[in-house]
Specification:
single chain; alpha/beta; Spore Coat Polysaccharide Biosynthesis Protein SpsA, Chain A; 2 domains; 7-stranded mixed β-sheet; 30% helix; elongated
């Protein structure tokens, strides 16, 4: 009884309201205002010259067979819904309607109770039942790429099975369980669909007022981090809506942290309930009522850019596609399609399905490229062209992140800025972002890949690259296969560069004189690599934590590694007070302390490399010898001798090989 008291009181107020405004409401309904399709003309605003706070993605290409999809058609006649014998009575559906206060909501995160007020703003709220369980899971897998969105997310679910399924992914998302017997993926405008829309709207209304809330739906593909969009995070008392060709959409709305939000959407739900006829089924959906109510201009609101926040109508309209050419979307909705399975199939055919085939775990993505640059746009372009030219196999996902350092005056040079605005990437997600302050080499390397913010199993390999590098066509085969093959716990990272420096002081031999002339195609070296570094997730996580714990200690004490050339270089930088030029000493000390090695390829007896350095003018080169250090290997790597080096030789600072210095590996024929 306690759980129903608030709802009963709520509906008493609705009845009183109906008596007061009933005549006006009936008049409005009879005039067709609530059911007609509005054709408000919105002029598309061109995008800003460049918004670096976004994760970019290539322009979407509509499926060549999209005409075969069963799309929704809106008409100007009223939405009258016919009852069937199989439909659940509305009274039964409302028996478990939400009526708690905020403190009484059954919200949990990772199995532990959580208060709604503890979820950080903006709160992304999404509703689903058992029939949409896989779509909810797919949203989780999508958002793993964009931390910390899931920490801000609240799922409203109507059954224990769906809550357990969401919890099984082990994210920081919160789940509010509010029981309801409607559990199927009902098609648009069917009676139970209308009932569920009313129910979920009432759930949403309970959450509004005290926090900024963004209402989302799971049938969409998110291409950018919502938390990096100013229109999502701005402190404002305005509402934000999306215009969906003929009306304001109910699938993406932003509500301010203001009591007016609860009042506004509560009235939308009131009006929806007032349209119920015999059988208790609402006859006008929430979007039509929302559109009519917004037209009364009772609230301040903005309309989100239709090209960044795309409707499913995009796939029907060539005019819509033309308007949005060159605009990188934040989200692509999959509405306007009839049937949950239709939407799932459509998402799968448009690279929008991130859930694994067993629906129990997320698909693992292949590679994340972390590119670091500063005022060398031509060098960056050369690296990018080599990355684009690689013959990636169908279905391989390669996400690309470019971080650009700014100068001491907190400005980014125009050429680099223009390049970042225009760069395109078709193999996966693309994120381009300047740092908010000057970072230097040390800051860039330490902060460019905050791996602990991402799931440990998200990528098979993460490759860190500076802008003066160039990669071989089959670089990706080496990094992926090397991580799979050379799994010894003493291996901390993989690189694509050809080793040249013998780190031990006093050495007089070149690397080619030390590496055996036959039988060595890859080896693990105590000295780390900077011209491409692909650390293991757990190793980089430990390194970042270790660096954070020791970064304020005097470098003479924290980083000393006697007997090696890099330490002599670093002592010179200490004297010059220029230690930020050599971040590598931190990783060298870390690997020395924890006995870790980096795996290098030894291609064609050291004659070629998989990642070359052009020695561009910068902090450590004068740019006079502008030529790659070694020519690139052009042959495929899979099943080559580079990944058949089992057991794997390892060498210390002196690079001296020994028969009893080997590490186990796991070679698998591909």
């Amino acid at each position: 009884m306690k759980q129903r008291s608030l709802l009963l009181s709520y509906y008493k107020e609705v009845c009183i309201t109906f008596l007061v405004i009933g005549i006006n409401t009936i008049a409005v309904m009879e005039s067709g205002i609530l059911s007609q399709s509005y054709s408000r003309r919105l002029v598309h605003q061109p995008p800003a010259p460049c918004d670096f706070t976004s994760n970019f993605t290539p322009e979407l290409t509509p499926n060549e067979t999209w005409e075969q999809v069963d799309f929704v058609s809106f008409h100007e006649e009223s939405y009258t819904v016919q009852m069937t014998d199989q439909e659940t009575p509305l009274d039964e559906a409302l028996d478990e309607a939400p009526n708690e206060t905020e403190d009484e909501l059954d919200i949990r995160s990772q199995g532990q109770p959580r208060r709604f007020q503890s979820i950080p703003e903006p709160v992304f709220v999404m509703f689903g039942n058992d029939g949409f369980r896989d779509m909810l899971a797919n949203f989780i897998c999508n958002m793993r790429i964009f931390p910390p969105v899931l920490r801000h997310t609240l799922f409203i679910v109507t059954d224990e099975r769906t809550r357990a399924h969401i919890d099984s992914f082990g994210t920081e998302a919160s789940v509010w369980l509010v029981q309801n017997p409607l559990q199927d993926p009902y098609d648009f405008e069917t009676p139970n669909y209308m009932r569920l829309m009313l129910f979920r709207g009432e759930c949403l209304t309970l959450l509004l007022g005290s926090k900024a809330v963004v209402w989302l739906e799971p049938d969409a593909n998110y291409h950018q981090n919502l938390l990096l969009q100013p229109e999502m995070t701005a402190q404002t008392d305005e509402f934000s809506f999306t215009w969906d060709n003929e009306l304001y959409a109910g699938n993406f709305m932003r509500f301010p942290a203001d009591p007016s939000a609860k009042t506004f959407y509560g009235e939308v739900m009131n009006r929806m309930r007032l349209t119920t006829l015999s059988g208790g089924v609402p006859t006008i959906n929430d979007q039509n009522i929302l559109t009519a109510y917004i037209k009364e201009e009772t609230v301040k609101y903005t309309v989100l850019d239709e090209c960044k926040y795309r409707s499913g109508f995009y796939f029907q309209s060539s005019a819509y596609q033309d308007r949005c050419k060159g605009v990188r979307p934040v989200v692509q909705q999959h509405n306007w399609m009839i049937g949950a399975q239709t939407k799932v199939d459509f998402a799968k055919s448009h690279n929008g399905w991130y859930l694994g085939d067993n629906a129990l775990q997320c698909k693992q993505r292949d590679i994340r490229l972390v590119v670091m640059t500063m005022d060398r746009p031509k060098s960056l372009n050369r690296l990018m062209e080599s990355l684009k030219a690689a013959p990636y196999p169908p279905g391989m996902t390669v996400d690309l992140q470019i971080t650009a350092d700014i100068d001491s005056n907190n400005s980014l040079d125009k050429e680099t800025s223009d390049y970042l605005c225009s760069v395109a990437w078709s193999q996966g997600f693309l994120e381009t972002r300047p740092w908010p302050r000057h970072m230097g080499l040390l800051g860039q390397w330490m902060e460019a890949w905050p791996c602990e913010e991402y799931p440990s199993d998200l990528y098979r390999a993460v490759i860190m690259l500076e802008d003066d590098l160039e990669v071989a066509p089959y670089y990706f085969e080496w990094f992926l296969a090397a991580h799979e093959t050379y799994r010894s716990p003493r291996v901390g990272a993989v690189t694509g560069m050809r080793p040249s420096l013998v780190a031990k002081e006093g050495n007089s031999l070149a690397m080619t004189q030390l590496v055996p002339s036959h039988g060595v195609h890859a080896f693990a070296y105590k000295l780390m690599a900077t011209w491409s570094l692909s650390p293991k997730y757990e190793v980089w996580k430990r390194f970042r934590a270790w660096y954070s714990a020791h970064k304020h200690e005097p470098p003479e004490e924290a980083l000393a590694v006697d007997g090696i050339v890099p330490w002599q270089w670093y002592k010179h930088f200490i004297f010059q007070q220029r230690t930020d030029r050599m971040w590598e000493m931190w990783y060298i000390k870390f690997t020395d302390l924890f006995d870790l090695y980096t795996v290098y390829p030894w291609v064609d007896s050291g004659e070629r490399t998989l990642v070359c350095n052009w020695k561009e003018k910068g902090l450590n080169f004068n740019g006079w010898d502008l030529w790659p250090d070694f020519p690139l290997n052009t042959a495929p790597v899979l099943n080559s001798s580079l990944i058949r080096q089992c057991p794997l030789p390892y060498v210390e600072w002196d690079a001296v090989f020994s028969d009893n210095h080997t590490l186990p590996c796991e070679f698998n024929e591909v």
